[in-house]
TrEMBL record:
Family, similarity comment: Belongs to the Gfa family.
Protein name per UniProt: CENP-V/GFA domain-containing protein
PROSITE patterns for this protein: CENP_V_GFA (PS51891)
Superkingdom of this protein's organism: Bacteria
One MF annotation (Gene Ontology) recorded for this entry: carbon-sulfur lyase activity
Keywords on record: Lyase, Metal-binding, Zinc
Keyword Metal-binding in record: yes
Pfam families, sorted: GFA
InterPro entries: CENP-V/GFA, Mss4-like_sf
Organism: Reyranella soli
Record domain CENP-V/GFA: where: 1-107
Length: 142
């Protein structure tokens, strides 16, 4: 699997663990703030299976909680990975994968910290497949 940041300055390659890629969602306050989103999609991969393809020198590290480092692209701000130095795994930010990982989330943690306004499955929410160049919704072809 390969992933990259918004501007493309930073890219990585990772091989899922032998047990397969287990995607989770996290709605803790720290993840919500770091991603400016109601949840972060993450997956753990062995550190030995992760390598930078380009741009590691363009990353910045922020210790968001004691012992947890978040690696960001210093150009566009995308969070690339999180890690606890010395642990055997790193946490990929699944939304940065360039292709479909072929699996879906298996857990959602810190639901108690999810914002009250976040209810993707609520009735009455209009859904669109795309957003047009002039700021107009694009209906799904039926």
């Amino acid at each position: 699997m390969q992933g990259s940041c918004l501007c493309g300055a930073v890219a990585y390659e990772a091989t899922p663990p032998s047990s397969g890629l287990q995607i989770g969602l996290c709605s803790c306050r720290s993840c919500r703030k770091a991603h400016a989103a109601p949840a972060n999609a993450y997956a753990s991969v062995p550190r030995k299976n992760f390598r930078w393809l380009r741009g590691q020198d363009k990353t910045s590290i922020y210790e968001s909680s004691p012992g947890k480092n978040r690696h960001f692209c210093s150009v566009c701000g995308s969070q690339i990975i999180a890690e606890h130095p010395g642990e055997t795994n790193v946490l990929l930010r699944v939304a940065l994968l360039d292709d479909d990982p072929g699996t879906r989330p298996v857990e959602h943690i810190f639901l108690g910290q999810r914002p009250a306004w976040c209810d993707w499955d609520a009735d009455g929410i209009t859904r669109y497949e795309e957003w047009g160049p002039e700021g107009e919704p694009v209906a799904k072809d039926t």
